[in-house]
């Protein structure tokens, strides 16, 4: 059991109005806690989720795709969502391009059909191995491995794990297209544990069952769901809050947590808020300079790293060159990871189920207004911060070059979103079990640590992590677990 709020009347501060912070506020409100306040530094909710309503379509700048393990998010959408869950059509992509580049001897002379049969056998072996290592658990974070054999088996990078187990096609297809493409770094740079968290046996079974799409998406966007939760549960959010200092102590008369903050647009006036419990949803590493971090907190969270940056651009353009499907992925850009556009998505066409030659030849409208204008979101991934002018200019140049290749000139950028992505722990730290050390630390100094940096950087993962904490927390005065 973990330590948490001691009374339903406790004042609880949640830092960050992203999916994890708002979901935790909703769950605590649902359980009966009355005094919850979210402090958000930006002037909007959503954190790394950003939606734009354009031409009647919710354009998801961080596209929410839901694999089969998103049980709890799916249930939340069905209960509170105002739109519908739709299937994501298979992307137009050369699925074995990376395999042929990295393993020429293994793939030489093999047709795509033969490679698919080999991949199928690897996926079956992977699923069996995953079950042997971790058993059955609620995704996304498995139980801490207690067996030394299991700890040795999952050490190293994703690539090292798969090569030890002779699974080259999973490395070059599944991990590149379903991990790297979504912003979770290349297999040779990230811990095997992250890969095993994301690619679960249930994911493997869905991958093998080609009768149904692997992913789904919520056509109204995640922001609309968060807004519904805020409204229905009367969640109080203070936007534009700049936190100056956080002090936690049992000796304070007005509460265990003291937060010094100011309005983002009036930094001359600092005010103090008192709370009984603190929940942190952004990366703790970013708060270490303003928090009275204990030695163990500093030892763990100073080790978090961010080396993935994400640019999404909503662009209006002529139709140009189109494929039979509304989403296109480019395999070889995933090897470079240098802001070459790696995928673009026509979300309106997806909601209308447009595909085939009629779509490719441009006989379908580009929006609810009926105009023959293509409104697509283009995604770029890289390891350098595009907010650095030289890096940003290079990324813009690569996007323009791509638009010229696709014959989509002239074009107009309607909206752009830039964010660091997939804050995580290093391979060596994950080998030592640091992600489970965070679980052991929950409740330390009247604090819970939630959000993408302590689990996996997806909406479904942070929601299921919140519920995991609540399953291991006894409600005040009852002794019963919250879930």
UniProtKB/TrEMBL annotation:
Pfam families: Amino_oxidase. One of its GO terms (molecular function) is oxidoreductase activity. InterPro entries: Amino_oxidase, FAD/NAD-bd_sf, Flavin_monoamine_oxidase. Residues 20-99 form the Amine oxidase domain. SUPFAM superfamilies: FAD/NAD(P)-binding domain. PANTHER family: FLAVIN MONOAMINE OXIDASE (PTHR10742), LYSINE-SPECIFIC HISTONE DEMETHYLASE 2 (PTHR10742:SF410). This is Amine oxidase domain-containing protein. It comes from Pinctada imbricata.
């Amino acid at each position: 059991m973990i330590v948490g709020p001691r009374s339903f009347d406790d004042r609880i501060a949640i830092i960050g109005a992203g999916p994890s912070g708002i979901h935790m506020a909703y769950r605590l409100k649902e359980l009966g806690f009355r005094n919850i306040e979210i402090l958000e530094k930006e002037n909007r909710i959503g954190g790394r989720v950003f939606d734009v309503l354009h031409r009647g379509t919710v354009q998801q700048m961080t596209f929410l795709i839901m694999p089969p393990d998103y049980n709890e998010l799916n249930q939340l959408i069905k209960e509170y969502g105002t739109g519908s869950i739709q299937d994501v059509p298979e992307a137009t992509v050369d699925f074995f391009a990376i395999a042929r580049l990295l393993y020429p001897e293994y793939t030489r002379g093999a047709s795509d059909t033969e490679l698919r049969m080999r991949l199928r056998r690897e996926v079956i072996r992977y699923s069996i191995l995953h079950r042997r290592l971790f058993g059955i658990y609620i995704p996304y974070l498995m139980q801490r491995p207690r067996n030394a054999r299991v700890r040795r088996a999952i050490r190293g990078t994703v690539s090292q794990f798969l090569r030890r187990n002779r699974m080259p096609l999973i490395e070059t297809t599944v991990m590149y297209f379903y991990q790297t493409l979504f912003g979770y770094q290349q297999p040779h740079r990230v811990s095997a544990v992250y890969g095993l968290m994301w690619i679960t046996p249930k994911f493997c079974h869905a991958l093998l069952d080609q009768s149904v799409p692997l992913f789904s998406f919520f056509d109204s966007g995640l922001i609309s769901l968060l807004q519904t939760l805020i409204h229905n549960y009367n969640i109080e959010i203070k936007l534009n809050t700049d936190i100056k200092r956080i002090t936690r102590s049992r000796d304070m008369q007005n509460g265990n947590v003291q937060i010094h903050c100011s309005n983002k647009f009036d930094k001359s006036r600092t005010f103090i808020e008192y709370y009984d419990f603190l929940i942190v949803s952004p990366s703790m590493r970013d708060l270490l300079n303003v928090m009275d971090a204990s030695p163990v907190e500093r030892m763990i969270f100073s080790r978090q790293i961010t080396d993935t940056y994400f640019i999404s651009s909503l662009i209006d353009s002529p139709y140009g060159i189109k494929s039979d499907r509304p989403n296109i992925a480019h395999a070889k850009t995933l090897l470079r990871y240098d802001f070459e556009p790696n995928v673009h998505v026509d979300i309106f066409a997806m909601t209308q189920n447009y595909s085939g030659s009629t779509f490719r030849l441009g006989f379908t409208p580009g929006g609810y207004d009926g105009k023959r204008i293509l409104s697509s979101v283009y995604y770029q991934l890289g390891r350098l911060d595009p907010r650095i002018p030289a890096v940003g200019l290079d990324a813009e140049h690569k996007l323009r070059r791509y638009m010229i290749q696709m014959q989509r000139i002239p074009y107009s950028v309607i909206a752009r979103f830039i964010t660091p992505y997939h804050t995580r722990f290093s391979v060596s730290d994950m080998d030592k079990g640091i992600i489970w050390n965070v679980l052991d630390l929950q409740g330390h100094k009247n604090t819970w640590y939630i959000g993408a940096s302590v689990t996996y950087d997806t909406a479904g993962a942070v929601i299921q992590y919140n519920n995991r904490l609540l399953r291991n927390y006894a409600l005040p005065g009852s002794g019963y677990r919250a879930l």
